[in-house]
Amino acid sequence: MPIHLVPQPVTTPTVPAQGVSGTDSLAAAPYGRAAADEPATLRFAGLRLVHAALRRDLARLPNALRLLQPEEDDKGEALLRHWNFITAMLTCHHEQQDTRLWPIVRRFAPELRLLLNWLEDDHHNLDHSFTRVTTLVRIASRDTGSAWPVAYAMEDLAARLETHLRIEERQLLPRMERVITDGSRLGGLGELLDLLRLADGPGVADALAWLLEGVEPELVERLLADCDDDVARNWPHWHATYQRCTSPLWGPVDGQADGTAFGFGGLGHFAD
User: Who contacts 38 (Cβ-Cβ below 8 Å, separation ≥6)?
Assistant: First the structure.
């Protein structure tokens, strides 16, 4: 089951038009430390990594489910565990946005409040949709005869999530770059890992290995530099353990089928 940091009610919204203020409220003093206080970090790395990892897994989980054979009980259990994991990560990601990021954006960009309200409502609806599909995945992991229709349900949900992610990336992230300074940890990988430590949800080791799967080594080093020393010290062990646990599902995790790895293009333009 997904782990909620802050329980929220569910409503059914309609997408509002993004308002435009008569004055540019984004010109207000940005939230966070001044860029000169410390080296620039990868902008909103935590958010972008979650988006990339969700897209990656929702593209390959349906086919992995379709290929599941009746005698592969262990693989079925592994698929269910992985689905439960990404569902919990999605919920924690939503809570990070709703409780930490969106209040800051509302303060400095009030013309975006209708869009933010819609995103929050859609977060809750997506969480419940993932919970419903979890029930189907649980059945399909034990009864391969239902694998194909459940795989289609996964793909439908992935398409719906993709719409949500694109709205955030195209309409909101560019504005957040003007609201939140380079030096702020808001939306970053370090902040996400800190929130996971406080939540009764995915462990930091599993989450970090999942987030950084397929990311090119040079970029991994930059991302780890924004984390605490304990994370950087334990990363090689966490990474190796994740590889062993997930390779039965879809083979080696480092790089894509063509041997390439995610870089700045694969995760969005961190350096912009």
Answer: 183
